[in-house]
Amino acid sequence: MKIIAVDDDGVALDLLNECLQAGDFHHVTLMSSPTDMMKRLNDSAIAYDCILLDIEMPGKDGIQLCAEIRQQPRYKNTPIIMITQNREHAAVERAFSNGATDYITKPFSFFEVLTRIKLAERLVQERRAAMDSYLSMRTNDETGPHLSLVLSDPAEDTARDLAKAKTGKSKVLSLGVFQNYLDQVTSGDTCDTQLFAIKLHRIDEIFANSSAQEFLALLDSAARAVHAEFAPHTIFLAHAGNGILLCACKRAAVQRAKVIAQSLESNLRAGTLPDVCRRSIPLQVSAGLPFRLKPTLKLNFNRASKAAISRVELRDPAPAGNRSQLRVG
């Protein structure tokens, strides 16, 4: 894996390089200047597979640099790992909001760095495999078989990347990046992050009766509508499959989460929907009751996400003509 790292602290760079070499990552470029690193990224004939950024640097900090890198098409989905002494939730939130994939705090251990790098390596490999599979299927069937990934397999980012290419900046994190974010906000002494899920009902029927572009646009529109509903609060989303969006927000935004289903459904109906949603399958939305994540050394992400999904699965959409009774549960 081809890695580039930037840090204005030479000692930290040396330590990071020693760590990567110990983990058999030998194709590593070390830079001390953000400007020089951007030039190297632009000039490199072969794109880097993973980028490590120190946050506290003079001139342009690592988060600003991350946002700038994400503007380059070939680095839109490259794993970017932030390395910093700042453990405050506001810094974590700002980093992930600007495109970070993961977050390592100083002083770091070799084990933590290598664990995060190997997760990034797996992400790169899965994306390549997904794209290869997608291209192979498209060669044999131009009707868009990649939609099965959207419907049932959130681990693959192919469909999310395709939606991003069609509609601009994605509002949905991959499930792996979403987990990394929750790992960080729950790792301190306190945590005020709430988790809940939103469900688009009868998604399998909508999927079966929509074109590829319509279905991807629906998921992207739903994500954008959720972000608009929570503004000015920050909310992070991930597609868990089967029309379910996992959502994480601060406690200050919880009241909004409790009443979002009816408002979100109305806003989506007012926008662009697949023809089938206007003809025979009305779009219906439910939201599960938010719950607070507790501080922990290691978040059990599967357990937390299943709890959020089970809460929204208990919700049946309100029958037509009875939208005013739509509640979370």
CATH homolog superfamily of the largest domain: Reverse transcriptase/Diguanylate cyclase domain
CATH fold-level label of the largest domain:
Alpha-Beta Plaits
For the residues shown, what is the average pLDDT?
Answer: 81
The number of helical segments is 14
Overall geometry comes to globular
Q: Helical amount among residues, as a percent range?
A: 40-55%
- Terminal CA distance reads 45 Å
Beta strands, count = 10
Radius of gyration: 21 Å
Number of domains: 2
Which class best fits the helix and strand makeup? alpha/beta
Major beta sheet, specifics?
5 strands, parallel
CATH architecture of the largest domain: 2-Layer Sandwich
Sheet with the most strands: spatial strand order: 2-1-3-4-5
Strand content: 5-15%
Unreliable segments of 5+ consecutive residues: 141-150, 153-168, 320-329
Q: Given this structure, which CATH class of the largest domain is correct?
A: Alpha Beta
Order of helices and strands: EHEHEHEHEHHHHEHHEEHHHEEH
Break the fold down into its secondary structure elements and pairings.
Elements (H helix, E strand, L loop, with lengths): L2 E4 L3 H13 L5 E4 L2 H10 L6 E5 L7 H9 L9 E5 L4 H9 L4 E4 L4 H31 L6 H6 L5 H10 L7 H11 L7 E8 L2 H6 L3 H19 L4 E7 L2 E7 L3 H5 L1 H11 L4 H5 L5 E3 L3 E2 L8 H13 L16
Parallel strand pairs: 1-2, 1-3, 3-4, 4-5
Antiparallel strand pairs: 6-8, 6-9, 6-10, 7-8
